[in-house]
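Entry:
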Amino acid sequence: MLIRAGSSGCGSGCQAHKMPNLRARFAMLSRPGRFAVLLVSGVIAGLGQAPFDLWPATIVALAVAFVLHGDCRSARQAAGQAWFFGLGYFAFTLRWIIEPFLVDVARHGWMAPFALLLMAGGAALFWAVAAYLAGRLMPRNIAMFGLMLVGAEVTRSLILSGFPWALLGHIWVPTALAQLAALGGPHLLSLITVLVAWSVALMVAGRWAGGLGIVALMVVAGFVVRPGPPPAPMADAPIVRLVQPNAPQHLKWDPAYRDVFLNRLVALTGQGPVPDLIVWPETAVPSLLNYIVGDMSLLEGAARGAPLVFGIQRRDDIGQFYNSFVVMGQGGAVTGIYDKRHLVPFGEYIPGGNLVGQFGISGLATTDGGGFAAGAAHGLITLPGIGPAIPLICYEGIFAEEIARGTQRPRLMVLITNDAWFGTAAGPYQHLAQARLRSIEQGLPMVRVANTGVSAMIDARGRLRAQIPLDVEGAVDVPLPPALAAPVYTRWGDWPVILLLVAAVLSGAFMRQRDSD
């Protein structure tokens, strides 16, 4: 429901005298002081993301931003406030973005602060545009601002190759409300975030009945969809071995250490009973597939007949390089290859690479050639003895809308990644949180194996059934959890939420036009 702005201009149908001194005190600050308050509020909002998972902080900080939006005198002012709030939020949640530039400090370290500022400032622009459009359509109306904010989150997930990291809805991953992603994906969760923050803003405005009603509805929803404790593994469940070598990024490609890490993988793989499936991380084998495909005896000996999934780079007949996901079956035969389709801009390829390559600029993650080529197909891959699986490589796991949807129901998802690029603070844990969300959306278990962690078996409800912590070498055998019936999201994707947003915005615009006539 959209609340029209009252004559007091507070934007939520409230009376100005019901408001606390928040707006008055904010207005009395100097311009730098107001900017500082917005930046700090954005940082506080970021505490809801992993690894802190303080979702109430996000709700309260976002409610403050809503209250202050209701006092903006123009759409331009609203945009400016939203940008500074977003700058604080994204600079904090995306702080891990500097880590790849510190792997080779001498060459790339100088770029780190610029990368963070450009990434955070660019992401904040989406929120600024949302506030501006809301201010134009329905001035000072915080409900419209909230709807536009969700629209901005959808937009930044899709355009310019998309970057759906630190979405507002990700704060719910550790909670029962995350299960609603099975209905509407990450953007439904973002809509819920905005709705709860709006309810807090209503209560600040003195409208306790409406605010508490929304909060009560969310509590009931969380109670209804809560997954409960995981069931005991099925007796005939396939056993999957997750192998984490813990190769630091600055040593991973060092010729003096390549064999060390490969031998570590082999040793961890060859211990104990033979499992039904073994999974190694992204680029686990430090050679081109072209050079080892004729002699897989080392890998075959370690696997002892079990199928082995591993990451490796390969080159095709015309000299293009790929970041690949390979399945090795019995006898060392390659039974399946998947080439990564959604590459990391400025990491695995450079936009406009032919031009900037003339100046010696290449992607951070490339080791041969000038960058990677994108794979041609994103279908299922068959794992011997287990069934069809959705293969994912690192970055691809953050794009909910790109997970394969076809007529054949997969048995599981397998994501191999090298989170050593992300450091040891926020990045790996935020990446893991998004993997949990993909399992809920698809109703499928996920085998997630990372070079330095966190490797985990995630069940179809997003619960962690087993894990190898960050910066630990090791292997763990885990029964593969069952798949669930295909959730609504696998059939409809983001379209229901997008259409709901469009309908709500058009409804608000119509209401304003009717009132002005």
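Residues 239-481 form a domain with the Nitrilase/N-carbamoyl-D-aminoacid amidohydrolase fold (CATH 3.60.110.10).
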